[in-house]
Amino acid sequence: MFDNLSDRLSETFKRLKGHGKLSESNIADALREVRLALLEADVHYKVAKDFIERVRTRAVGQEVMKSLTPAQQVIKIVNDELTALMGGQAQPLSLTGRPPLVYMMVGLQGSGKTTTSAKLALELRKRGRHPYLVPADVQRPAAIEQLKRLGSQIQVPVFDSDPGKNPVDICMQALSGASRASADVIILDTAGRLHVDEPLMAELQTIRSRLNPQEVLLVADAMTGQDAVNVAKAFHERLKLSGVVLTKVEGDARGGAALSIKAVTEVPIKLLGVGEKLDALEVFHPERMAGRILGMGDVLSLVEKAQESYDQDKAKEMARKLAKNEFTLEDFREQLAQLKKLGSLESILKMLPGAGKLKQIKDFKPEEKELKRSEAIIGSMTPAERANAGIINASRRKRIAAGSGTTVADVNRLLKNFAEARKMMKSMTRLGGSKKKLARLLASR
User: Fold this and answer.
1) CB 85 within 8 A of CB 49
2) What is the set of domains in the chain, with CATH numbers?
3) Listed residue (88, 109, 165) closest to 134, CA to CA
4) Which of 47, 164, 204, 394 has a 20 to 30 A CA-CA distance from 301?
5) What are the CB-based long-range contacts (under 8 Å, 24+) for 44-47?
6) Residue 63 CB neighbour total at 10 angstroms
7) How far apart are CA 216 and CA 233, in angstroms?
8) What DSSP element (H or E) covers 171?
C-alpha cells in the first residue's frame, strides 16, 4: 500500500533538499506536488486540500525558514500531519467489560467480512481470549459453511446457525451458546449486500440494538478507494461504527481509503488485512504508516513480527550448535520456516528504513517459491543426509531432485547456499573472541 504515493513524495522531497535555503516559492512548488500525489492516490479532494493548508501554515513559519535543515523540517511536518490525518495513534480493540463481549462485523458483500471474522478470532485467541464465531449471514450461499470451515482451521468454535432462521434470532441464540462454549468474545459475521440498502441497514440496526455490541467494525475493501470512504460514512450514520478494518491493502498501491476514512467519518482504522492467510491481520499504527509512506521504514512492526515467531528455547539451541559448528540442513530448514512466519520477503524489506528508495530493492521481487522449493528438497533427504551434507554424492542428488520434484541444479544450488551459510556462521564465531562468548551473546538476544 502507498507505493505510488511514497515514490512521488520521495521525488518531491529530493528536489526540496537540493535547495540550501527554502523560500515560500520553493515550499509552494513542493506542496503543489504533494497535493497532486495525494489526489493521484485517490485521497478525498477536501482531505487533500485541508492537509496541504495545514502543512503550508507550519512550513512557512520561523522554525522552518530559519532552520539549518529546512527541507528536513518540512518532511517532519508532513510526517506529523500524515500521522494526525490517519488518527494520531493506534486505536486498540475494546476488551474490557462483562463477558461475553460482542464484536459485530458489518460491510458490503465481497469486502471480506467472513475471512476477517476468522482472522480476528485467531488474533484474539493468540491474546488468550476464547472467541466464538457466529455466522449470521443467511443471504449469501455457503457463507455459514465457509465460516465453519475457517473456524475448524483455527480451532475456534462456531455457532451452528440455521440458514432458514432470522439473523436477529441467530445472534440472540448465540449468546446462550457462547456460555456453553466457555467463550468470552462473540464475533458476529453479518450479511452484506452489493450496495447499501434499507433492508440491510434495518436488519443491522436491530441486531445492534438487541445485542449492544462492544465493537461495531466495518470491513471495507481498500482497493475500492473513495467508495470505501463513502460506504464507511453511510454505515456510520446508521450504526455508529467504533472502527474500520481495511482489507486487501496488499493489492492497493494508492492508499486513498486509509488516508481519507478517519478525516471524513471520524471513525478510526483499527486493523489492516494484509494478505490471504488467516494470520495476516495487523493493528493499524498511523505513526508507523506515515513512516512507511515517507520511506522511513517500520522497524517496530518488524521487531514485533519477529517476536511473535521467536522461540527462545530453539534460539538457545541454535546458538549452541553455531558455537560448536554443528549447524545441519535440518537446522537450515528450521530457519527457513521461521523466516516464512515473518511474512513475504518483499514486505519485510519495505519495513527497513530507506530500503524503498534503493533501486536494487525496488527492482527486487523475492521469489517466495524459492523458500518452498528449498524446504521440499531438504524434506526429500534422509535423516542421515540432513545431519551430514558431506555424504550427498551425485546419485543421492539425483534421488533428492526426483523426490522433491526439482532438478539436480536446484539441489546443487541449495547445498551451495547451505555451505556458504555455514562458512559465514563459522567465521562469525571467531569474531569478538571465543565461541563460548558468541553462544552466550546469541542466546541472550
Assistant:
1) no
2) 3-85 (1.20.120.140), 101-296 (3.40.50.300), 304-444 (1.10.260.30)
3) 165
4) 47
5) 44/226, 44/229, 44/256, 44/260, 44/263, 44/264, 47/85, 47/259, 47/260, 47/263, 47/264
6) 11
7) 14
8) helix 167-180
Per-residue pLDDT of the chain (445 residues; tens, 9 = 90+): 577 788 888 888 888 877 767 788 888 888 999 999 899 888 888 999 999 999 998 888 766 666 657 778 888 888 899 999 999 888 989 988 888 999 999 999 888 999 999 999 999 999 999 999 999 998 887 889 999 999 999 999 999 888 888 999 999 999 888 888 889 999 999 998 878 888 889 999 999 999 999 999 999 988 888 888 889 999 999 999 999 999 988 777 677 888 889 988 999 999 999 888 898 898 999 888 888 787 665 445 555 555 555 555 665 666 666 666 677 888 877 777 766 665 555 555 555 555 555 444 444 444 567 778 888 999 999 999 998 998 999 999 999 999 999 999 999 999 988 888 777 666 655 544 444 444 454 444 4
How many other C-beta atoms are found inside a 10 Å radius of the C-beta of residue 50?
14
Tell me whether strands 281-283 and 269-273 are parallel, antiparallel or unpaired.
Answer: antiparallel
Cβ contact 73:64 at 8 Å: yes
Output the nine-digit C-alpha cell for 87: 488518527
Query: Rounded CA gap, 438 and 47, in Å?
Result: 53
Residue 219: which H helix or E strand, with range?
Answer: strand 215-221
Q: What does DSSP say about strands 185-190 and 101-106: parallel, antiparallel, or unpaired? A: parallel
116 forms beta bridges with none
**Amino acid residing at 153:** Q
Distance CA 65, CA 73 (A): 9
Calpha distance 44→46 (Å, rounded)? 6
Please say whether the beta carbons of 196 and 209 come within 8 A.
Answer: no
Peptide bond into 131 cis (omega under 30): no
